[in-house]
Every structure is written in C-alpha cells, then in structure tokens.
Amino acid sequence: MQPDRPVLIDAAQLAQLAQDAAAGARRRSHILLHADHQDQVQRLLIGLEPDSYVRPHIHSLQWEMIVLLRGRLDLLIFDDQAQLVQRLAMGTAELSRNLGDDD
To answer: pLDDT at residue 49 above 90?
Structure first.
C-alpha cells in the first residue's frame, strides 16, 4: 500500500474478502490499508464469517475503531479483571455507535 495516497476498495475486492473469509480456517480475512506494521495508524478491513471469533485483547499503545459495512456483530467490553462490563449489539442499520452509550 502507498500511505501518501487514498486506498480505494471496490465491490470486487469486498466480494473477494468475503470469499477468502469463508474459505479460511479462522473464518476471517483482511485487507491492509497501511504500508507496514511500523505505521503509527494501522488501518485494515476485516471480513468475518458468522462463526468467526476474535479473542478479547488489549492494545497497549493503540486504540481500535470498528465500522460495520455489512452484517451484525456483538462487541464485548471487559474490565481489567476480565469481567464483562458491556455488550454492544452492532448492525449496519445502526451505522455508528458511541462506546459510552448505555444499553
């Protein structure tokens, strides 16, 4: 990728992303939008199949933004003691979500 130019993703690339996710053992795939792992901002598109699972994780020096393009997912927020503190049901009918909203 070239960091000094916008990265355009078309319908064919999204279709290939979904196909790769469906075929993958982890049931997900990604398209990198940044040049390399040294970039300060890591941007990527992730295609997840309904039976895919992303383990809870912490980014020590980074934050994470989730923008749903299609489908739905549940985002689980845990505290430092690994206790579930919030569950956010996200779907494309709800285009954005503030993580501070009460559910």
So the answer is: yes
Residue 31 pLDDT > 70: yes
| ∠ CA 71-80-67, rounded to 5° | 20
Are 2 and 16 part of one and the same domain?
A: yes
Tokens (6 digits) for 69 = 């393009």
Count how many residues are written for the chain. Answer: 103
pLDDT digits (tens, 9 = 90+) for 18-30: 999 999 999 999 9
For 22, the domain range is 1-51
Q: For 74, left (φ over 0), alpha (ψ -120 to 50), or beta?
A: beta
CA-to-CA distance for 37 and 75, rounded, in angstroms?
25
> Whole-model pTM?
0.71
Residues 60 and 100 occupy one common structural domain: yes
Based on the structure, what is the number of domains in the chain?
2
